[in-house]
Amino acid sequence: MAALESDPMAGLPVVRGSYRFDADLAKTTWFRAGGRAEVLFRPADEADLAAFMTQRPADLPVTVIGVGSNLLVRDGGIPGVTIRLGKGFAGISVEGHDVHAGAGALDLQVAKVAAQAGLAGLEFLVGVPGTIGGAVRMNAGAYGQETGDVVISAHAVDPRGEVHALDPEHLGHSYRHCSVPEGWIFTRCVLHGEPGKAEAIATRMEEIQTNRTASQPTRERTGGSTFRNPPGRKAWELIDAAGCRGLRRGDAIVSEQHCNFLVNTGNASATELEELGEEVRRRVFESQGVRLDWEIRRVGRHPANRGAT
Q1: Which residues contact 277 (CB under 8 A, 6 or more apart)?
Q2: Residue 182 belongs to a domain with what CATH number?
Q3: Catalytic choice (225, 249, 269, 274)
Q4: 283 assigned to active site
Q5: Are the CB atoms for 283 and 244 separated by under 8 Å?
């Protein structure tokens, strides 16, 4: 890391994509808060990403982000290289009953393409913010379905730059989890749909979008569901029972509409949002003996100690 701090280009492989230095990530995360990326790399395609991973210095930290929908970047920023998959990973196509999607494709767009092709079973994706790569990584789900229910294969690049084809057994999906090592980067996947009636598919998608707008602060600066549901429990019910609805830390607030959402109501820092979440966890544990696990992914350094992660 010392080489990057003195010379941002030192040790970085030649790529066909682009590098940006000292990139402001607050403008891209849905919270509109947080620090900067030391280096932001947008690979041109899967081969460019694989070549970068092969040639990068072994001690270079690498962090992968999507569109920032379920992400909190700490105020101290992200050291090393932050990878964001862009246009080269956003393609969507249909072959028979299967939808082929790049990891950078928006979940909403995948659902729409499937609907246009008359494929049912992927409607739930209109209720999942973010990209397909993130959905596969965390087995994202909504309204009774999860990504693991429909994904039949995926490709990922490992830290050595090797590309792997993975089937559902290798993906090992369970609730908000997959068993693929954290350092592997998903690049594309295949999702399976079933023939359906266009009118029924459109109706189901509209129902999901209407329910989501009515029950969640979708027009606010938020990071989606903050905590995973504990086994047999609902996180929002535990938070509500602990008296946390409307709890505030600066401009960070627990949503009045859905109390498993944190909202930046103005100029909240990432530190304030994270501290508010930790206060919610503390109150839930003290009042009900349940430890909530973060669903929002938190990355980067705390500002008070730039070496901490």
Answers
A1: 226, 227, 262, 294, 296
A2: 3.30.465.10
A3: 225
A4: no
A5: yes
Type of residue at 68: G
Read off the pLDDT of residues 228-263 as tens digits, 9 standing for 90 and up. 999 999 999 999 999 999 999 999 999 999 999 999
Q: Is the pLDDT of residue 6 over 70?
A: no
State residue 305's pLDDT score. 54
Q: Could you confirm whether 228 is annotated as catalytic?
A: no
CATH number at residue 27: 3.30.43.10
DSSP result, 134-171: HHHHHT-EETTEEGGGTEEEEEEE-TTS-EEEE-HHHH
- Active-site annotation holder among 20, 32, 176, 306: 176
215 assigned to active site: no
Domain ranges, residue 280: 218-299
pLDDT tens-digit profile of 123-162?
Answer: 999 999 999 999 999 999 999 999 999 999 999 999 999 9
pTM, rounded to two decimals: 0.91
Within a domain: 208:
no
